[in-house]
Amino acid sequence: MPAINETGHAVNVSNFRLIIDHCVELGGVYAPTNAAISIANMNALHASAETAIAAVNTTSQQAKGPINAREEAYEELEPLVTRAFNFYASTNASEQAIADAKGLADKIRGVGVVVQRDAEGNPDPNHVSNSHQSYVQRLNHFRQLIALLVNDDNYAPSEDALGTDALTVLANTLETRNEAVGPALAAAIEARGSRDVLLYADETGMLDLVQKVKKYCKSLPPAQATLVKAILGIKFKKIG
């Protein structure tokens, strides 16, 4: 999966600063009747947008720890399940029991999730939130597999790491890590939502206001053509 692009939002905010600076250079000629694109309002929006970008960066970093901790814990799951199943398949367990175990093992190993990350390695909170159910399902299938093995005397490995007690410890760890992710995500998702409203909301968002600024500037006298051309040439991209 491609990495998410947080840089693009910051570029939009930086380019908005350029728009404002050029409008200031126009002096008294820049006098729109729409208060939303006044210098004062745009300065306030720019300040809010910079604060929102900083909040996203901070909360994403704070979410990084518990998300990475869960990923690390789940990295142990697939190889351990494979080993446990192979041991079980070597025993005198019934064909049906082994088939049931294989079905659960395949479900555990077949729904792995790759977390999207930005250039700095921060996980995408929205993607993690959307994929959360996959982690929960894997844990649920793992607990079902443990229950199957606990109830079959054929499953009695000599290696402690494959024993049902050890498997249960891992399951409990996975559950703890799952539960830790939720609160960490909440602030990050809220920060992104606030940022997106400031930058991309219809009518009031930064990008829509930029289009209004550009249209207004096209109405200015030809003497302002150089600055107007500079304003019209500043590019923005709606992201997400």
Structure description:
This protein has helices spanning 7-25, 39-75, 77-89, 95-109, 125-150, 164-200, 206-217, 225-232. With 240 residues, it is mostly helical. The radius of gyration is 27 Å and the shape is rod-shaped. Helix 1 (7-25) packs parallel to helix 7.
Strand-helix topology:
Elements lengths: L6 H19 L13 H37 L1 H13 L5 H15 L15 H26 L13 H37 L5 H12 L7 H8 L8
Please describe the structure with a list of short key phrases separated by commas or semicolons.
rod-shaped, about 240 residues, mainly alpha
Give the % helix.
55-70%
Report mean pLDDT, rounded to a whole number. 90
Bulk shape: rod-shaped
Sheet with most strands? none
Q: Segments where pLDDT lies below 50 for 5+ residues? A: none
Q: Strand-and-helix sequence, N→C?
A: HHHHHHHH
Report the end-to-end length measured between terminal Cα atoms.
15 Å
- Tell me the total number of β-strands: 0
**Beta-strand level of the residues, as a percent range?**
under 5%
Task: Indicate the radius of gyration in whole angstroms.
Answer: 27 Å
Helix count equals 8
Structural class computed from helices and strand pairing: mainly alpha
Concise synopsis of the structure shown:
The protein is mostly helical.
